[in-house]
Amino acid sequence: MNGGGMVMDRPGGPWKPVDQTFPALSHTLDTEVCIVGGGFIGIVTAYLLARRGYRPVVVEAGRIGCGAVRMSTGTALSQHRLRSAHLWKRHGESVARAYYDVHEDALSWLERTCRRLDARCDLKRTPSWLLAENVDHVQQLEEEAEAYFKLGMDGRMADKPPVPFTGLPALKMNDQIQLDPVRFCSKLVRWLSLENIQLYEQTRAVDIVRGKHPSVVLENGKMIRARHIVCATHYPLQHLSSRLQLERAAAGVFTMPETMEEGIFTTLSDPSWAFRSLSDGKLLVSGGAERVSRKTDPHVLRDELRRWVKEHFPEAAEEKIWTLQQVRTSDRMPLAGPVEAGKKDLYTATGFGPWGLSGGVAGAQMIADHISGMRNRWSYLFTPARFEAKQELPNVVRHAASYVKGRIQRRECQSLEDLQPGEGALVRQEGIRTGAYRGENGDLYMVNPECTHAGCEVQWNRVNTTWDCPCHGSCFDVEGNVLEGPAVKPLERFYTMEKRK
Ligand SMILES: Cc1cc2nc3c(=O)[nH]c(=O)nc-3n(C[C@H](O)[C@H](O)[C@H](O)COP(=O)(O)OP(=O)(O)OC[C@H]3O[C@@H](n4cnc5c(N)ncnc54)[C@H](O)[C@@H]3O)c2cc1C
Ligand code: FES
């Protein structure tokens, strides 16, 4: 049987999964708010609404808290590379200030909530450092520091950051946050379940019907009719894709002979790398992000990560490495709020790049405020309605071009005989292009490599042991089950030669 609804646990990630499990939804129901996606933003939105007396229903395709949040590095920041100077130049002082304030407010909310729920998620206020690796970087940091000063932000240049590999000045911002984001989600989930909020796992939404009677259509054919639907699926199910870009990055945990200095560190290099220590003293590194395309090779990303760690922390020993995706918008500002201005049927929260924990809290607050009719003074920053057709055109064209490329470009096939245990590749079987994976015990898994979202050909990801789509980032396990959308249907599974006989 082709797996259909069952979703396996995602590979990778430094955090232990949420400690509760929930049933699948097997009947049709009516509710005021349905949240699709039980990840970080979906759970925070549910919590905010439930505290205001709403009874949201959450449906999660896999396990709650096991998506991108489980693979993240667990930092919540207001220091977003060179954003302050950039926003000031591009949009003026008020937008630069609001962008900082909305993230600072999110950090305070995280800390307050952690305290209120006694979350014990290793949340710690700690400095965040932007590291220069050459004199141009220093100049960029000085410009950013000037914006900090003019905006009254809590940060300044420091002569020497506490890291072993750069003697150049760095830009320090005080009181940023590191935490175990899944343990934080666990605590919210426990609170929600004690309040009898309905949470469902292994329940995949396959469609959202808009209009007078909005509803979420589930893979098993059941429906959830709701006045408000929040799509918190990391990459949205079916709307907005021309405004979004996907990047794939690598991350890993490394053991260190000595505990490193506390703090969150991000290099200004391109690609950029970020690192922090875990509560047990291990080093957590992520970065190397590049735009997802047919050329993206997770194996190369993994090697880049290894090379960077070896160069900067020669004594670090690799424990595990994984790759993950982040979603950005064409104007680098997240999208959170009603998908269409003036409508209250469908909301989205996406495009947070590497800052989905601080930005995600802010986005969840904007959505919860909109649903409950409260004013949010920052909602204009993330509003999906900000895009105009004229401004959108180049993105639509770029998106269409990369999609067409993804559909027509074909990688070379390998021979099935050469496929070693633990390896996957595109092979030609009786003239048909096939995605084949040979398990460690020699079992063959074969799928149709045509992505069920919009037909691009998936590529083998040797690091995560998944099939990944270069067009909009869907990921599938070796049996073809969807691990990450926007695809909602599994890859067609081909029977192996042995079974056919
Ligand atoms: C290398 C790297 C490191 C990062 N580190 C950080 C960090 O330190 N700090 C930070 O702020 N951000 C970080 N991020 C970004 C951050 O991980 C994400 O922005 C954040 O986790 C997004 O939360 P989310 O709720 O949107 O997504 P998720 O946590 O992925 O939740 C989405 C959920 O929706 C579910 N879902 C999907 N489709 C369906 C469907 N059809 N039906 C039902 N459910 C569905 C998924 O299974 C998933 O559980 C990092 C990103 C990268 C690439
Ligand atoms: S074609 Fe869109 S994710 Fe594969």
Provide a descriptive summary of the structure in words.
The protein is of the alpha+beta class and 501 residues long. It has three domains: 29-59 and 182-241 and 333-393, FAD/NAD(P)-binding domain, CATH 3.50.50; 75-176 and 246-326, D-Amino Acid Oxidase, Chain A, domain 2, CATH 3.30.9; 416-500, Rieske [2Fe-2S] iron-sulphur domain (Rieske Iron-sulfur Protein, 3-layer Sandwich). The protein has helices spanning 40-51, 68-71, 83-91, 93-116, 135-151, 181-194, 298-312, 358-371, 379-382, 389-408, 497-500; strands spanning 29-36, 57-59, 75-76, 124-131, 155-158, 170-178, 199-200, 205-209, 215-218, 223-231, 244-255, 264-267, 273-277, 283-291, 317-329, 335-338, 346-350, 423-429, 432-438, 444-447, 459-461, 466-468, 475-476, 482-484, 493-494. Strands 3, 4, 5, 6, 11, 12, 13, 14 and 15 form a nine-stranded mixed sheet that branches. Strands 1, 2, 7, 8, 9, 10, 16 and 17 form an eight-stranded mixed sheet that branches. A four-stranded antiparallel sheet has the order 18-19-20-25, with no helix packed on it. The longest helix has 24 residues, at 93-116. It binds flavin-adenine dinucleotide and FE2/S2 (inorganic) cluster. Flavin-adenine dinucleotide (FAD) binds next to helix 1, helix 2, strand 3, strand 11 and strand 15. Keywords: 2Fe-2S, Disulfide bond, Iron, Iron-sulfur, Metal-binding. This is Rieske domain-containing protein. Pfam families: DAO, Rieske. It comes from Alkalicoccus urumqiensis (Bacillus urumqiensis).
